[in-house]
Amino acid sequence: MDSYSLLYSSSHRTGLLSGFQRLRSQGNMCDVVLEAGGVSFPCHRALLTSSSEYFWALFGETTAERLAGSISLPALTTEGLDAILDFLYSGWLSISTPTLPDVLEAARYLQVETAVSICERFVTDGLNADNCCGYANLAERHALSDALEAANQTIAMEMATLLRESRDDLLGLNIQSLTAVLDADEIPGVKEAELVRLALDWLNENGPLPLLKSNLLLSHLRFGLVAPSDLADLGAAHRAMATPLIRSQLTRALEYHRSGSAQPIRQSKQSTLRASPDRVLLVGGGSAPEWPERQMLAFDPRSRTFSPLSSGVPLRLRNHCVCSVGGFLFVIGGEEVNEGDEEGKKSAAAAATSKQVRRYDPRFDRWEAMASMLEAREQFTCCVAEGAIYAVGGRRARPGSSTHASVASVEFYDVASGAWRRGAKMPRPLYGHACAVLDGGIYVSGGRPGDGDGGGGDNRRESSRDVLFWDLEGRVWEKRASMSIGRFRHRMAAAGGFVYALLGMYEPFCDIEQYDPRSDRWTRLRPLLTGSFDYGVASTPSGNLLVFGGRRWSDGREVVVRSVLEYDTKADRWREICQLPRPLSGTECTLLPLPD
Questions:
Q1: Does residue 506 belong to any structural domain of this protein?
Q2: Does pLDDT of 201 surpass 50?
Q3: Residue 200, SS3 per DSSP
Q4: Strand 441-445 to strand 434-438: parallel, antiparallel, or no bridges (unpaired)?
Q5: Is residue 190 a contact partner of residue 160, using CB atoms and an 8 Å limit?
Q6: What 8-state DSSP symbol labels residue 310?
Q7: pLDDT tens-digit series, residues 454-505
Q8: Residues 29, 35, 39, 43: what is their CA dihedral angle, to the nearest 10 degrees?
Q9: Which residues lie below 8 Å from residue 388, measured CB to CB, with a gap of 6+?
Q10: Is 155 inside a domain boundary?
Q11: Number of domains into which the chain is organized
Q12: How many CB atoms lie within 10 A of CB 417?
């Protein structure tokens, strides 16, 4: 058998289309005429049939149009048909924003799916605040699922601008898109009451709707994000709000607002902010360690930008703790720094150890005083486990003295009842320690067991290497493998099934360690870029660690820094990703969804 070669010419296909285009432009061998909008288009039956499912069926063996010399297409415009015929003959599709509806209509009608895909890509690539509503309606009409999803996402992200500048476009939106937008988890810069008004105005503009459809639309509103004073009036705002389903949602929202201290554990989608869940909130701290500021900063890991919150911490605090439960921020204990006045300048006059607890609700930008701890604490540690807030160890001022006493006591905040309860004491007093939650328990590491004032000198040798584990199920303290370094005023974080211990005060090296609970072993990892302490730490959803600011020694003196470092736990790599707006030391961090 003789061998042979099979070769392909890419130019032949192009030449074939060019030949048909030339014949069409010259009017040669055209055997059918298409008519739309009073304009005739001589064409070649063979090319149409091979390029379109519509024409394949139209010119089939059993159809009346099989031998017809002229075919009228009244459903299409001249511009739409002309663009699609040019595409069939040349492979080039001419689209602009004004002609897109006609071109897409012709492509869908004639079943030229390649042209439909090009139109969908044109929509997706060109979405902005000016055209997203119109494109959403176009995508919904022609079942362009990818373009419809992209348009709905754009509407959600641009909602603040649309409500202000293009409300009529929103009122003309198709119900599928409006429902999808109201179901979005992120709608920046828009209060829920504005979305409620939009939905009711849309119903007035497009109603009346069947009960099932109006219920479906309104059920995507988050009534828990509407102020209680406004909820009472919503039932009478529109007849669609008076249905049993919507009234029950309004009732549940009012019950949520009345639940007081239990609000964090009564969260549902109805009370969840439409915001990015991975914002890092920096609470307290300042450019001078002795003078903490009240401002709170929000850090967006995606854009690596900071923005101040309109509300600040009610008191100037240092050595405090923060945590988040159910989308609420809790600021606990610490030292309350009172303002003094030296030569006309404000300064820290005195600091009193506090047992106070304050809760911040970002939904309504509101602070509330919650039940105080049973003991005043500073340089303690706190964490959230099984829905309760644990406050562990720390120290408090001795009555009538300027010295402090460290404590072994543990207490936890029962969110449901809003009360603090005693927990099992640690084996010995500790302050300046750190903790992390992993595998159903609380790890506590380092710190100092004895009394002290946190100064230098011999106290530096007291930093502990020990690690304790509180088993939440067994309710006992257990000893775990010790760290290789004694640490004080350090940080711990859990990520990817491991616990990480970071740098503390008075450590000669910048080493960090990783604890594996399966093997009960610590492993040294890549050191920090520079030695620092008194910084804030957050563990991101991706499993990386973020380190904010802190203090370090430079030329024999302490310097407050602005750096934001990221530790890649998988690659064991540090890098600086951005800078704080100003030097910051002593801040406490937690993840919290925040409105834009």
A1: yes
A2: yes
A3: helix
A4: antiparallel
A5: yes
A6: S
A7: 444 444 458 999 999 999 888 899 999 999 999 999 999 999 999 999 999 8
A8: -20
A9: 412, 413, 414, 415
A10: no
A11: 2
A12: 11
